[in-house]
């Protein structure tokens, strides 16, 4: 495979811990609109007991009763920051008190319907409600988004047709301690590799196996130039597993390139740490921003355990 000579991308998506500003991605919901939504209960029900309504055309799933119309500029403002800005938005102030997890999920999907097409939910596999199922340190805890251990930096893979364009995480409940979201710019990782370890970049612009699914392979490069944009896909665990499943062992050069990527991620100056509060909706460009999570200690009461709603958007 012939790849173009790597070049620095820079731009608003190339941020780091030292250059990122909260004002670049924090957007507060208009107070009057949030209060109107707070006063709204699902049609014919008491708060927290609604089962949701049928999907609204072009807008995901309506959260029970139809919410008041969004301020006209809000979805465009969010979309602009995701597409042309830092690739990260924290939309703060969602009134979730008294709403069930299902209602919070429907509300998140309804808003994401203004940004694209939300993928069908699969609550049986934890694709919508992401919560700690076991106390910290439990020996049976499976490592993943529903686990309480640290989660390494990655972009989401999902299933067919491939990685989603956007990822949304709505915080319903915080962990008792820890559980901060970790964010890293793929553009920053790329541009720092260009300076620190340029020999790693040509390999990272070529294909890796990211695991197999039912009748399909996940094969794509870590970095891909798309006209004037840089697309990033990364998950070290699944790259290793994917190559084992494909009977294509990673070579020393492959491992060196992936280690160089991880070294930049491990630099304390690369990542931004955010502790989401209830009512914060974190939205990411899944083609440009990597995310992870610190370990956490959860409440013993199952009703108070950490809970996020996850939405994938194309």
Describe the structure.
The protein contains 8 helices and 16 strands. With 314 residues, it is an alpha+beta fold. The chain folds into 2 domains: 25-44 and 54-139 and 158-173 and 277-284 and 293-314, no CATH class; 181-274, no CATH class.
Layout of strands and helices, then pairs:
Elements lengths: L21 H4 E3 L2 H9 L34 H10 L4 E5 L8 H12 L16 E3 L19 E4 L11 E8 L3 E2 L2 E5 H11 L4 H4 L2 E7 L2 E6 L1 E4 L2 E4 L3 H10 L6 H15 L5 E3 L5 E6 L3 E5 L2 E2 L9 E7 L1
Parallel strand pairs: 1-2
Antiparallel strand pairs: 2-13, 3-16, 4-14, 5-13, 5-16, 6-15, 7-12, 7-14, 8-9, 10-11
Helix pairs in contact: 5-8
Keywords: Antibiotic biosynthesis, Iron, Oxidoreductase
Organism: Streptomyces ficellus
GO molecular function, one term: oxidoreductase activity
Low-pLDDT stretches: 43-61, 135-143
Helix content: 10-25%
SSE order in H/E notation? Answer: HEHHEHEEEEEHHEEEEHHEEEEE
Question: What is the C-alpha radius of gyration, as a whole number of Å?
Answer: 20 Å
Count of runs of 4 or more consecutive helical residues: 8
Q: How large a portion of the residues is in β-strands, by DSSP E?
A: 15-25%
Q: How many domains comprise the coordinates?
A: 2
Distance between the termini: 28 Å
Largest sheet: 6 strands, mixed
User: Strands across the major sheet, in which order?
Assistant: 1-2-13-5-16-3
The whole-number mean of residue pLDDT values reads 85
Structural class: alpha+beta
State the shape. Answer: globular
Tell me the number of strands.
16
Organism: Streptomyces ficellus
Keywords: Antibiotic biosynthesis, Iron, Oxidoreductase
Protein name: TauD/TfdA-like domain-containing protein
Cofactor: Fe(2+)
